Predict the structure.
Amino acid sequence: MPKMTNDKLLIVLAAGAVLSIAIYMLYDLNPEIFFYQIPSRIKRVIAIVIVGVAIAVSTVIFQTIVKNRILTPSIMGLDSVYVFIQTSMIFFGGASSAILLNTHANYFISMALLTFFTLFVFKFLFRFTGNNVFLLLLIGIILGTLFGNLSTFMQMMISPEDFLVLQNNLFASFSAVNEQLLTVTGIIIVIMLFFVLRDFGSLDVMSLGRDHSVNLGLNYDKKVSQLLIIIAILVSAATALVGPIMFLGLLVSNLAHELFSTYKHFYTVIGASLISIITLIFGQIAVQFFFDGGVELSVIINLVGGIYFIYLMLRRSRV
């Protein structure tokens, strides 16, 4: 049986994304509360598309820069920083602090701090490690452990009531997304995607490595700096909106590379985005209809993604 072409594979994934959205929108509708269910589900679908695309695109670009499919912005400690920010807000201001209660202030402060951390750490790490993948991964794990331990220490010091409030902010959830923040995040991510989609050629050249890119006339260092800014904003906006989903990017980016087997980022970026949407939609279906909201979506994604991460590590060790 001949292998499906990349163009046809994109069409199949796009059809799968549309079908998964249709299943979610129509499954278990109650005629008595139909006009409540539909707007609520539409809002969740929009949030899933925005977050899924942002994480997929940022991960594929990041892996192109570091020349490794195991590293992602989340594995480099970004999720632990988000937990640290949310914990610090409650630790210093309490559950009734103005920043925590003001959804917009919490969003923009979290996004600004995450963006600053991403830019500062990634740029520093690239210079310090010389793109040594294993050293990057080790430092990322150390940073994640550091911020995770600081967060755990502060969580032990706060009251049980404050801890319950904190728990709601530590797991990714699409159930209570603020519509105004959803619009703001959508605009931010569309702007970032505009810069990515118009320059697939540079990403294709960068996949050849720094030396080849420079020889072909690409200002490699400048392009890396620009892409790091885009990655930082994409990941920070998505995380600040719904919370951290650690292994989603790793899962969908590697599946896209496996399916398309091409250096062209047109296919891998769009393919990873479609896989991300399908994954999140079916994850939301499982959470909402089969677990009755008793399990957070991030728990399911991290379970599957964590197993896949172990598989990738074991497969690399055999090569």
